[in-house]
Amino acid sequence: xxxxxIELYGLRLPLAEPYQLSRxxxxxxxxxxxxxxxxDAGIEGWGEVCPxxxxxxxxxxxxxxxxxxxxxPHLLGQDPRRVExxxxxxxxxxxxxxxxxxxxxxxxxxILGKAAGLPVCELLGGREDHRAPVVSxxxxxxxxxxxxxxxxxxxxxxxxxxxxxxxxxxxADIARVRALAERRREGExxxxxxxxGWTPWEAIRVMNAAKGLDAWFExxxxxxxxxxxxxxxxEQAMSLDEVIxxxxxxxxxxxxxxxxxxNIKLARVGGLTRARRIRDLCLSAGIPMLIMCMAGTVVNDTxxxxxxxxxxxxxxxxxxxxxxxxTVDPAPGRGARNIDGYMxxxxxxxxxxxxxxxxxxxxxxxxxx
Length: 369
Ligand code: MG
What we know:
Elements: E1 3-20, E2 26-39, E3 44-49, H1 61-75, H2 83-93, H3 98-116, H4 120-123, E4 135-138, H5 143-155, E5 160-164, H6 170-182, E6 189-193, H7 200-209, E7 216-218, H8 224-231, E8 238-240, H9 247-256, E9 261-265, H10 266-269, H11 272-285, E10 289-292, H12 298-309, E11 316-319, E12 338-339, E13 342-343, H13 357-360, E14 365-368
Parallel strand pairs: 4-5, 5-6, 6-7, 7-8, 8-9, 9-10, 10-11
Antiparallel strand pairs: 1-2, 1-14, 2-3, 12-13
Helix pairs in contact: 1-2, 1-3, 2-3, 5-6, 6-7, 7-8, 9-11
């Protein structure tokens, strides 16, 4: 089986409402990119990567599309079922740029699953029997506004919440943490996430003010060294998200006892092939994981659902469904859907979801052998 054609599609995803992250970064929508890998065997592989704008991570839609343009000539003619071989090939031809490789990697796994007649979660080690919660993404707002939003997410079935902080100063953040943590119900997961928006000094003050509360914090500062400084001067549980990019980042964090939880954003770490290595290292160290995409639609979320389902309980703490925040759905009624706070992968070969090509419009690029 050979890759005979590669197509890229672009899709604008407006958010249902503007979304505010720490330090005032506000977003009203995202530019998503879909890949279609066509083979000479008649099997097609699909994938989606959607950076969260351009100011959140070192990733943006234009670079993603340019990166695939660089890789496409090397991928044409290759056997797409050789996921590790083709990831090494991509590394040789284009060092770094892991989120570009993630887009290709999703398509490879989709083809591998369809060729084997198995869902991707089975190929990743096997479907585990758990119902890890979908985590809400509760944007930065006033204390009252966040309490109102919390109730709104609860009404939609969510029982795990990523509560965004990092705007308006330390006192405002402490007030938000206390008000929200006091309202945590039994069985709910509350994750206070500054998305790297605090200085170490701010993070240490907010986190120490949360002593005695069941409040867990994620990625307080922008760099690993800053997060480690905070870690050593606080007692609250901590997860690392944005600074975990490749396997050596996890090794270092484990050696430093820098976190209790690792948040794996599949596109950031290079897709399923690389995420699988990180998963196995975390499992060997007893570190639980959150599994998420950067942004995107049900196509991206479905890859998340497969990967999460291949992590045993209790190491899969939750997933995230960006489809619940955007107003465009390119695969209506299909793929992994959040039902009562849980998003399970389809029992279909491959990823089990393909977008409607008519909804995507004309390809923005096409490469053929
Ligand atoms: Mg996070």
